[in-house]
Amino acid sequence: MKVSKLKQAKINETLKMSIMKTLIMIISVLGFIILSNCTQKIDVNKLLDNSEIRSDIFEAIANDHDQMTLFMESIQSNKHAMQMMQGHYMMKGNMMKDSMMMHNMMGNMMKNEKMMEKMIQMMNNEGMMSNECMQAMSKTMNDKGMHISGMEMNQDEDNK
Q1: Count of domains forming the chain
Q2: CA separation for the pair 131, 151 (Å, rounded)
Q3: Mapping DSSP to helix (H, G, I), strand (E, B) and coil, where does residue 15 land?
Q4: Residue 3: its pLDDT value, please?
Q5: Radius of gyration of the chain (CA)
Q6: Is residue 12 part of a domain?
Q7: Cβ atoms within 10 A of the Cβ of 134, count?
Q8: What domain of life is recorded for the organism (predicted)?
Q9: Among candidates 159, 157, 151, 82, which has minimal Cα distance to 126?
Q10: Cβ atoms of residues 141 and 115 within 8 Å
């Protein structure tokens, strides 16, 4: 009986070792799977959808010289980004031209007493300019040498 107890102990020991090896293998595989899932791929579009995060990212890039340089290089190598930049500069240029045109038009209008008189009269008649404002403007223009005559005040406002 001693031999069978010794054999039984050896079998038990071998079985325990086999179970331990299997458990270690299973735990190792599970650990590897868990650790490999920890490195998630970040969805950049989801980050940029959040306005706070997007603002923080833009500010971080704009305030870091190296990051801004990399960003500008990225823009320059992207055809669509370059087209947008060119469109922006063209639009800005057109706005400047429009501003200059408006300035010139206003200057020319200020030199034309009849046009100014008609515009002031129309604004008064349409209720866009009060009688007091029209009188003050007429006085200012007379002081500047523009003699505007025949401006009749809106009668509706006089009756108020």
Answers
A1: 1
A2: 10
A3: helix
A4: 61
A5: 42
A6: no
A7: 21
A8: Bacteria
A9: 157
A10: no
CA 10/CA 16 separation, integer angstroms: 10
As a whole number of angstroms, the distance between CA 20 and CA 32 comes to: 18
Domain range spanning residue 143? 113-148
Cβ-contact 57, 47 below 8 angstroms: yes
Is the torsion defined by CA of 82, 85, 89, 91 positive or negative?
Answer: positive
Residue 26 domain flag: no
10 Å Cβ neighbour count for 120? 19
Kindly state whether residue 133 falls inside one of the protein's structural domains: yes
Along the chain (160 residues), what's the average pLDDT of each consecutive run of 10 residues?
A: 74 87 88 74 85 91 91 88 75 70 76 79 84 83 72 48
Q: List alpha helices for the chain, DSSP H.
A: 2-38, 44-49, 51-62, 65-76, 79-111, 113-125, 131-143, 155-158
71: burial class by Cβ within 10 Å (0-12, 13-18, 19+)? middle
pLDDT score of 158 = 46
Query: Is 20 within the bounds of a domain?
Result: no
